[in-house]
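Form 12-C: Joint structure prediction
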Amino acid sequence: MTNILSVENIELYYDHIYALKGVSIDVAEGETVALIGANGAGKSSILRAITGLRPLKSGRILYQGERLDGASASDIVRRGISMVPEGRRAFPLMSVKDNLLMGAFTRTDKAEIEQTLESVLTRFPRLRERYHQQASTMSGGEQQMMVIGRALMARPKLLLLDEPSLGIAPKLVQDIARAIVAISRDEKVSILLVEQNSRMALSISNRAYALSTGSIALSGNSRELMNDDRIKAAYLGGEL
Amino acid sequence: MEQIIANGLYLGAQYALIALGLTLIFSLMNVLNFAHGQMYVFGGFVTYTVVVQLGLPFIVGLFASAIVLAIMGAAIEKFLFAPVIRRSKRDESTMLLAAGIAFFLDAVILLAFGEKQRGVPKIVNGVFNWDMRIIMPYDRILIGVLAILLIVVFIGFMNYSRTGRAMRALAQDKMAAQLMGVNVARYSMIGFALGAMLAGLVGGLLVTITGVNLGMGGPTSVKAFLMIMIGGAGVISGAIAGGFILGMMESVGLTVLSAYGDITYLVIFATLMVFLAVRPQGLMGKPWG
Ligand SMILES: Nc1ncnc2c1ncn2[C@@H]1O[C@H](COP(=O)(O)OP(=O)(O)O)[C@@H](O)[C@H]1O
Ligand SMILES: [Mg+2]
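Section 2 - Result
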């Protein structure tokens, strides 16, 4: 299997404090990879590095075999990488419709944008009901569906999800997990899923990496990691 | 009564356009453009030059004002504000820069156009008279209608065009907008150009009625700040509300308070202070500024 994404030994700093010291991650074509770890471990920093929001100190990132680091955030979206950021970051005063259309900002193929919009609304029927409603008036779960839909509007080849279960009612976490599985099945998209909800992340991914203060502590097949004593102790304990 | 409302609407439409430009720049870049009034004056002089000096039709003058100010706004953003914002994390830096640009533009206007009051001959003659209840020269009506038309076009553009949507997105969440592929540098420049263009257009509109002079820049900036404070900074509806409210207050003040001397703005300032003490975010103020 070819890798759509290879993160190679990256280091990332905020001012003079490191957040990542030599992290390597691969995502294969069509795969869902989970990235788990405690708060502050550096999960979001990895995604910020991939999407060009933060520069690297060293190391490199390859996407479809080509250098990605150094490209601007807007170019990276155009190359097929979409991110659902931590805390959702919906456009609060825009309607659901305009939020979704913003997702297709880099596209110019009008007719096909309509098709994608239709498929997103079919995937998340709640968004159709709320189509003209202002985003800030919706629940956290609905907003999460919306920003996932917004990311899909770009028709990405690689989808990055940063803690989609954060602050969502437990019942809706299951819906979101199902939606991620369905997206991976229906769309030609590879997924890198960042989660603190390790149980959920391991149950819907093929492989996983466990991050601990800026470096990879463990990695492997998700099903095996689920039964790994070290993972159980460090990441699954509280949630059983 | 009808006369006061008509005057207020006429004035309010101009004011709302000025406030829209200011609030657009503020919401996109968190920059209070102290030079907004000078841009308005500059726009007036451009129309004056094209119409009076070059003898071209008024509409050409208006277009020239729009284009010159859009280019000026783009250049000011790209070569002055963008580098300062990149290097400095303090808000005062852009405020100082904006104040500096205001003084600089005053100097440029003085050099290029002189200190005389300039006007453009009436574009239409005649006076509308509704039973002595509303008396308004046709040219004022035309300018008022043009201003309202421009407001409608601007709102339509912001709400339904791809560029307008991107600017709203940038104003509401810069990081998320970046993740959608919006080039922040490019759209900040477009937004600044558009804001300056609106100021220039109002200058071009009003030069036919009241004329322009060098001294109008500063006071116009202050009025524009008043409007966005009334309506709530960074919000389109707030700028429009603020513009029309200030226009109305001026119109009422000039009629009702004229007997007590020139105290309209004293009363407006006092009222505004009380209002802002109760509602500091303005009428439509939103948490995002
Ligand atoms: N903007 C920032 N400025 C300074 N330090 C930051 C910033 N963002 C994150 N950090 C620090 O970098 C480390 C990793 O953060 P982050 O990648 O957000 O972790 P995670 O997503 O795993 O919770 C943390 O110690 C955090 O405090
Ligand atoms: Mg995080």
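Section 3 - Comments
Chain A is about 40% helix and 30% strand. Residues A 43-44, 86 surround magnesium ion (ligand 2) (CB under 6 Å).
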